[in-house]
Amino acid sequence: MTTAIPGPRIAAVAEEFGTPVWIYDAERIRRQIARLRQFDTIRFAQKACSNTHLLRLMREQGVAVDSVSLGEIERALKAGYRPDGADEPIVFTADLLDRATLARVVELGIPVNAGSPQMLEQLGEAAPGHPVWIRINPGFGHGHSRKTNTGGEQSKHGIWHEHLASALALVDRYRLDLTGFHMHIGSGVDYGHLEAVCETMVKQVRLSGHDVRAISAGGGLSVPYAAGQPEVDTDRYFRIWDAARRELAGELGHPVRLEIEPGRFLVADSGVLAAEVRAQKPVGSNHFVLVDAGFNDLMRPAMYGSAHRVTVLRDGAEVGAPLIDTVLAGPLCESGDVFTQEPGGDVLPVPLPRVEIGDLAVFHDTGAYGASMSSTYNTRPLIPEVLVDGPETRLIRRRQTVEDLLALED
Ligand code: LLP
């Protein structure tokens, strides 16, 4: 399913707020949340899209939040999350605790999902009894790209499964309050891996000899970026995890809360990036079209070779055939600033309508890891974010100015 925001609406937002611009559809986010209601806790991995207005929407829908930095903790607080509510509204997940974050999680009592033994030690020293989760690296992972695989020997994430006993010894030494175990093996998980993760989870809880109140399935639910890619079967996903949870609850003799921690699944297909076509030129056998958004705005194609569906709008109407093989690129002073490229970096011409200067190029399914991965490379200010909700249109982040950027260096 791709973004449902109609062309005339996208054109109107681009007209009002200028280009490039991120646009999100609130209704679509609510619909995605509803698809996961079987899980006891839906915890949004806000790294996917951390705008505080979207976090507020999540909170209003009863969705908890994952924070991976001090900044993301402050975002959650600004969105109205309470640090100490039931079922842990905010959890801090990381592989290290920098000093400022350590002080803040202790001050607020925010549970820490520990990805290294040092986190347990440092937290235990600072705040014996603090609530913790343990993130386990089960020894294998899976991802849509090597760079999004977060398990196995090449991954820095989590506590290696063979070292769980020594991590638990630290939990005991500092009387840390263990909520449960967490595994996130990567983004774009398939069912085979999912079953293996569940098996490992059950095995690790058994081996640990510790009681747990909850287990977390992590995130990683995939979304169909291209036509023909399947939608994730959320019922099947739940059934696999629910079986593991029931097995544990039976053995432990009490209910075990089941969490899921998606980022992309909740927001990817809510968002588009609208950019204006500003130039086009033949380069040898390639036809280049240049738009006013670059990889500083949408980084996924340059970083992973990810492909986003692109449509072209002229006066709000979608332009159709004839299609010509096109290399779509941005304005940055760097040759990798190309939206249609192979994972290795070679340009990849894709069939697109014949454009005119002033057309809008709309990059679909960019609600996840779009705005949140943007940078100001080439001294390009961050672009605005706009939320549409039924008839309402709201600017939820203004366009950064060059003055904003330069002020940091005064
Ligand atoms: N939980 C943890 C501990 C994570 O590290 C992540 C993602 C998630 C949940 C959410 O994963 P998701 O459901 O969104 O797949 N920038 C990459 C994705 C990196 C994900 C990093 N961790 C991309 O654009 O595809």
From TrEMBL:
- The stretch of residues making up the signal peptide is none
* N6-(pyridoxal phosphate)lysine modification, residue list: K47
Instruction: Give any GO molecular function from the UniProt entry.
Output: pyridoxal phosphate binding
Q: Origin, by domain of life?
A: Bacteria
- The chain positions of domain Orn/DAP/Arg decarboxylase 2 N-terminal read 31-268
Positions annotated to bind pyridoxal 5'-phosphate: G220, E261, P262, G263, R264, Y369
Upper classification of the source organism reads: Bacteria, Bacillati, Actinomycetota, Actinomycetes, Kitasatosporales
Q: What is this protein called?
A: Diaminopimelate decarboxylase
Task: Give the keywords, sorted.
Answer: Amino-acid biosynthesis, Decarboxylase, Lyase, Lysine biosynthesis, Pyridoxal phosphate
**Enzyme superclass (EC):** lyase
Catalytic activity entry: meso-2,6-diaminopimelate + H(+) = L-lysine + CO2
Q: What binding partners and quaternary form does the record give?
A: Homodimer.
- The UniProt annotation places substrate binding at R264, R300, Y304, E334, Y369
